[in-house]
Structure formats: structure tokens, C-alpha cells
UniProtKB/TrEMBL annotation:
This is YciI family protein. Belongs to the YciI family. It comes from the Bacteria. InterPro entries: Dimeric_a/b-barrel, Sec-metab_biosynth-assoc, YCII. Residues 1-86 form the YCII-related domain.
Amino acid sequence: MSFLIHCLYRPGGAADRLPIRRAHIHYMLDWLPVTVFGSAILSADGTQAAGMVVALDVDSETEVRRFIASEPYCSAGLFDTITVNPLVQMTPPYTRAVLERELEKCQ
């Protein structure tokens, strides 16, 4: 079953994520085999990071909670809200190369 994890940053969370973005991307690479898709959520004007969404194809919500508990942004307390909903997958995920390109952008 797939689950959608929807996370919105607390005030200052978007800026606070930058020092741990590398750890976040490495974490997402570890979870890539069960990732349906993942994306940053942008502000209404598209200029600021506002949060993230991740869809995982896992056996149970317990696995989703394990993902959340260890995800670097979540562990750092960057989010005001985190919601989880069951999901029906309709499109395929991106490849590993997308995350590897983003990793190269990290300082």
C-alpha cells in the first residue's frame, strides 16, 4: 500500500534545512526502493520552500512512522505539520539520478 506524507515547515524551517540537506538527500536515496515520488512544496509564489511530500509504497503505516522518525528534516524539528494519508499510485517515480544531481548542489 502507498502512503502520502505531507510536511509543512515551521517558521524558519526552510532556512534551517540547508545545513542538513545533504543528510536528507542521502536518507531519501536509502528509501528510494520504496519511494513512489517525492517533492519539495513551494510557497504560493514559487520562490520559497514550504515543505515536502513523499509517497512510500510500504506494507503498513508503521513503516511510514519509521520513515518519519528517522528522516533528518523531521528529526531536526523543521516541520509544523506532518500528515499521512493512504494513496493510490497513478504515475511512476523518478530515477536515482534526480536525487544524485540535487546532492551535487549541496555545499
